[in-house]
Amino acid sequence: MHSNIITKEFGKFKVQVLPALSDNFMYLLIDNSTKEAAIVDPVAPDVVWDAVHKENVKLTTVLTTHHHWDHAGGNKELINSNTNDQLTVIGGDDRIDGLTVMIDTHGVDFQFGSLNIKCLRTPCHTTGHICYYVNGGQDDVVFTGDTLFLGGCGRFFEGTATQMYEALIKILSQLPDSTAVFCGHEYAIQNLKFGLHVEPSNHYILNTLEDVETKRKLKEPSVPSTIGLEKLINPFMRVENESVQKVTQTVGDPIETMKMLRDLKNNL
């Protein structure tokens, strides 16, 4: 495994970080009061079932962020190997295997145990990308798939800079700063190094990079970050800041800044 399995406690619930493939993350969300579990992007079903059995919880729900095989490719095997009741498979794209609940409207809420989960449509990386915002009272987390990474964002495979601006600035940036961010890949070091390329004097990026490098030497995952931290360290969350706009020579046009930043990152 590229990282150790860790568990983060959040009062009413906990999140177990499950590494998969060369740099993917899956997440087991456990409601402490009902012992129900949901799995985010279960590309490695054997790892998922092992965690479910060790935690002694009932897996009821699959939260799929998008259709790419390294996120949704384990859905069919997970469903076929399930011996309990049918799994509820939630997503925003009919290309997702086993889909039972299609989310085609932004902001749809559903109850998972004692928790509320809001589905945030963030098309760009794929047209059907969904981020899942979990409100557990005093603690909030968001599973961002390949829309928002620690220090970065996903490629615009099926969308535009305008859509990514909407996703990062108008939707995700509006969540509480304390919201824990669990992203789809372990890309933190390369993303933070790009951030320093854009803003060499940003000490928040430098401090975060040092912290992440220490974690990675110990095989600890870099996740989670927070929405508040991303606003300080992530150039794609900072496209409205003149210091970032100057680098791309797009002062006054944050959407063009988003486009130019992504082009710059793609070509490094």
UniProtKB/TrEMBL annotation:
<protein>
    <recommendedName>
        <fullName>hydroxyacylglutathione hydrolase</fullName>
        <ecNumber>3.1.2.6</ecNumber>
    </recommendedName>
</protein>
<dbReference type="GO" id="GO:0019243">
    <property type="term" value="P:methylglyoxal catabolic process to D-lactate via S-lactoyl-glutathione"/>
</dbReference>
<dbReference type="InterPro" id="IPR036866">
    <property type="entry name" value="RibonucZ/Hydroxyglut_hydro"/>
</dbReference>
<keyword id="KW-0378">Hydrolase</keyword>
<dbReference type="Pfam" id="PF16123">
    <property type="entry name" value="HAGH_C"/>
</dbReference>
<dbReference type="GO" id="GO:0031123">
    <property type="term" value="P:RNA 3'-end processing"/>
</dbReference>
<keyword id="KW-0862">Zinc</keyword>
<dbReference type="InterPro" id="IPR001279">
    <property type="entry name" value="Metallo-B-lactamas"/>
</dbReference>
<dbReference type="GO" id="GO:0046872">
    <property type="term" value="F:metal ion binding"/>
</dbReference>
<comment type="similarity">
    <text>Belongs to the metallo-beta-lactamase superfamily. Glyoxalase II family.</text>
</comment>
<dbReference type="Pfam" id="PF00753">
    <property type="entry name" value="Lactamase_B"/>
</dbReference>
<dbReference type="GO" id="GO:0004416">
    <property type="term" value="F:hydroxyacylglutathione hydrolase activity"/>
</dbReference>
<dbReference type="InterPro" id="IPR035680">
    <property type="entry name" value="Clx_II_MBL"/>
</dbReference>
<keyword id="KW-0479">Metal-binding</keyword>
<feature type="domain" description="Metallo-beta-lactamase">
    <location>
        <begin position="23"/>
        <end position="185"/>
    </location>
</feature>
<dbReference type="InterPro" id="IPR017782">
    <property type="entry name" value="Hydroxyacylglutathione_Hdrlase"/>
</dbReference>
<comment type="pathway">
    <text>Secondary metabolite metabolism; methylglyoxal degradation; (R)-lactate from methylglyoxal: step 2/2.</text>
</comment>
<dbReference type="InterPro" id="IPR032282">
    <property type="entry name" value="HAGH_C"/>
</dbReference>
